[in-house]
Design brief:
The complex is a heterodimer. Chain A is mainly α. Among the domains of chain A are: 2-143, no CATH class; 256-474, no CATH class. Chain A has helices spanning 2-18, 21-34, 39-53, 57-70, 75-84, 127-140, 147-159, 166-175, 179-195, 201-214, 217-228, 233-283, 290-307, 316-338, 347-369, 395-417, 419-429, 431-436, 441-464, 475-488, 493-514, 516-533, and strands at residues 87-90, 95-99, 105-107, 113-114, 121-122, 385-388, 391-394. Chain B is mostly helical. Chain B starts with a helix and ends in a 14-residue tail after the last helix. Classes of the chains: A mainly alpha, B mainly alpha. At the A-B interface, α15, α20 and α22 of A face α5, α6, α11 and α13 of B.
Amino acid sequence: MTHAIAETILSAHLRLRAISTHAFALLLAALLLLSVSTPTHADALDEAFVKLYADNFQQTEQAVAGIAASGAPHAAETLDALRDGRLFANADAKRILYKTTAGDAFDAMTGGKVDNLDGFKKVRINNGVRRALDAAMGALGVGAADPQRRIHAAHELFNNPNPTTLPIIDAQLAKEANADAKSALEEARAAIVAATPGAGNADALRAIEALAARGDKAAQNHIATLAAKRDDPAIRTAADAAIARIDRSLFLWGLAQNGWYGLSTASVLLLAAIGLAITFGVMGVINMAHGEMVMLGAYSTYAMQMLLPASMTNWSVPLALPLAFVVSAIAGVVIERFVVRYLYTRPLDTLLATWGVSLILQQAVRTLFGASNRQVYSPPFLSGAYHWGGLEITNNRLWIILLSGAVFAALLFVLHATSFGLQMRAVTQNRRMASAMGISTARVDMMAFALGSGVAGIAGVALSQIDNVSPNLGQGYIVDSFMVVVFGGVGNLWGAALGAVTLGLANKILEPLIGAVQGQIALLVFIILFIQKRPRGLFAQKGRAVES
Amino acid sequence: MNNALDRAGWIFVAIMALAAVLVPVAALGTPEGALVHMPSYLVQLLGKYLCYAILAIALDLVWGYCGILSLGHGAFFALGGYAMGMYLMRQIGARGVYANPLLPDFMVFLNWKALPIAWWGFNSFAYAMLMVVLVPGLLALGFGWFAFRSRVTGVYLSIITQAMTFALFKEFFRNDFGFGGNNGLTDFKDILGFPLQSDAVKAGLFCVTALFVNLSYLVSRAIVRSKYGKALIATRDAESRMRFLGYRVENIKLFAFVVSAVMAGVGGALYVPQVGIINPSEFAPGNSIEAAIWVAVGGRGTLVGAAIGAIAVNFGKTYFTGALPEYWLFALGALFVGVTLFFPAGLMGALSWRWKQRAPKETGT
């Protein structure tokens, strides 16, 4: 619920920036016309109008606040006309009229059409009046029928508190039924009280309470403003406590946000590294072209988007998942059949040969698709963000975390519940013994390479949503993926998962402390030191096979 | 090392010695337009190849003779280059764009007030040369001590050396690190008071580089032919057995690793004045891997083959990137695949049918 409101506020805010206050006022007018005018309106309006006859800027300013507070049916048109110089006063006849943009004149009190304009003088305004008008027109929204509009108006007032609008807020607060609108109004009121040095102590304490409940940086600033202008010890203690409370909650939200970022980085790392962990584990060879398998996956997403008819654009990313898996798996099998299988006894040569393959693949993609970044479309469900308290959760990151969890679960299933998985684990543990038991190690190798590469392709689909799709895409992840595998240990999915989560979280925890690049460097140094202690990673294979 | 290979080595040394004399003569002593005249860009280009040859010999010493495929030798090369670059930066003095007598331009640009401690002393050539040796040497000592002590071998070692150069790559990109950020160090004016732009200095640098190629070769040759060299090769072929025989294999490896790193650093130091720039891209992991293919092409475990491989591959690179730029990566990639699959012994192995030594056996699985 909260996120929906926040989204509406955000979009309403943006929309309102775009259209003029003029249009806004007209909209309001339409709303206000629906509400029934009561005698009290007329009284308050009379009082305000009297001030207009004087043609004195200060008086006009007060009149503006009065008109807005009156809740009169034509208040919006009146204020709008005043700002545009279309408001006219006749001090002798005690009448005010406004002209529409079309040029027709109407009585501001009754709304009746006026034809005789004799004796009417334009009401002049200056910048002070303009400011009052801005505030008043904002405050008019506080009385709007739509709760969303009321909340938006309250937020505007919170950001630009104007003391003249206080009575309007109080009037609305007294009758407000919507809980969200009520708290927004209370916050706006608090901001205004904070900006008014003359406000009473009871009001100030109430304001501090409301601001502390809001608990963000802006609220903290308002409390600081409030406390700065007052000497009362009770208020000072309350303000200090509130500021400390907000600090604490901001810190905790920040921590949660960083944790989220860390989890998101971890999921990307896991997707990119888990295929590497499989091939490294089963065959003991490093596939330096693994990053290019990721890149092929990202380009498969692009290709799928190009192939699909326009009506199915939103399906391009889900449909790209199987395509990317197949494309990368085929590429993996080709590499395994034509290069890697001849080099099993020479792992260092495999490293060089697969590096050569990665160069060829990069150049091939560059030749086919061009060197520049390709634009991959993000369907609606992958864009946008949820807001939850101080947390911002972007949808694409959320989906990537879910995808990486699903891939991990699927791999666990394949490895532990299928006969192919059993064979793969057997080969990982002891190749020669597995072979002696009748397992076709060559076939297992090929399948493992296909599986690891295919998963890398899926990682590419995910990365196409958060990174630039370019021929160099894979290069950016290959070193980090190695680190995950080295840290977690080979041939064990849980090792890769723990490695990815540890590195992802550590990365995001270090980032605010020492900077992004420094954090990465610190992690690299940490891993170099870590493998001193555990040369085979967290989850090392145990037994004689390891030392061979 | 068999006789044919040794003979190839001596021929190479002789050619290098001849080149050290003849190239400067051809560049300076002949009129422009003469058939034997060598334009200065060519001198520079050849000088660059020879720096790569030094790096290749250094890498071959650890890879070919010790089984350590270091994917971080580009980092030692670049560190040596930075040490030289810092000296050259300080030599610019007040001739920079901002005419600051003490601070290099990029520091003035970053609004720094004082010279960072890391830059102290680099106005002295002797100190800079000491750093060319010490910085890569100490890094290799520290890194190798940790890695070899805990018996990190095979692809694991390759990966963490790559992580090392990757970390340095990132670090040197930062402006705050104090070594020129992504622009690196450039706009050098002169070395030891001689202008770098003059043909004579270029020819002189080539001559020095050629002599250093020979020095690197001869030092490495002496190492691998010594008693220690036998232990080194034995460690490559059967590390556990050596350990059981009572050898401290970590020390054996460490010595070769440090010597190799220093050699690479010297290569980098000679490289920078000839190409006129050093920037963080020299730390890119791809550069170090490319150096490995030079060695593989020439034939690992041959030293002379490594040097020839470096020169040959880079000549091909110059040709390809000029004539068919879009095919260079295809060619380089094919070279990586083809050499490892079909010619694991490299050029030296293909050239000499008497080359009996089998390809270095890999350790680890």
